[in-house]
Amino acid sequence: MAANPQRAEIALEVNGREHRLTIDTRTSLLDLLREQLGLTGAKKGCDHGQCGACTILLDGRRANACLALAVAHDGARVTTIEGLADGERLHPVQEAFVEHDGFQCGYCTPGQICSAVGMLDEARAGWPSAVTEDLGGDPPALDDREIGERMSGNICRCGAYPGIVAAIAQASR
Ligand code: FES
Ligand code: FES
């Protein structure tokens, strides 16, 4: 490892706020958010792109923050779980998770919610999933199978899946 790691200055808009940061070029977006900006909502589960606990919205699309090198996203717009609510008013997906008990320990929950917000936008835009049968028609109906497939990158170790699926189904209506 180099004695003097390369540093770079980047700009990021995070939850509506502009930041100019000097970073070690090896820093992941997840570490930058958690350790430099104190936004600990996005969780570090596996740090290998396998659990989804670190999911954020990157320029409006869901992404695993542990796999994103911060320096590669200079100028990006980031939304974390801390930025979804409108003041005291929860985002509809957050409300639905509360209503349907979509969490147990809650560790995966920020990633599940950010992923669901991104996924609902994808479905509204008509993007198919691996289980969508009609590829030419209207936006696919989000039944449990579609939701399960589209959320398959987000693992919940304590098995809150029934509540998670019910919450996302409600938020999709
Ligand atoms: S911590 Fe990023 S996918 Fe697991
Ligand atoms: S609520 Fe515990 S890992 Fe999902």
TrEMBL record:
CDD domains: fer2. Pathway: Alkaloid degradation; nicotine degradation. It is an enzyme of class 1 (oxidoreductase). One of its GO terms (molecular function) is metal ion binding. PANTHER family: OXIDOREDUCTASE WITH IRON-SULFUR SUBUNIT (PTHR45331:SF2), OXIDOREDUCTASE, IRON-SULPHUR BINDING SUBUNIT-RELATED-RELATED (PTHR45331). Transmembrane segments: none annotated. Gene3D superfamilies: 3.10.20.30, [2Fe-2S]-binding domain. The keyword Iron-sulfur applies. Its EC number is 1.2.99.6. Pfam families: Fer2 (PF00111), Fer2_2 (PF01799). This is Aldehyde oxidoreductase iron-sulfur-binding subunit PaoA. Residues 8-84 form the 2Fe-2S ferredoxin-type domain. Keywords: 2Fe-2S, Iron, Iron-sulfur, Metal-binding, Oxidoreductase. It comes from the Bacteria.
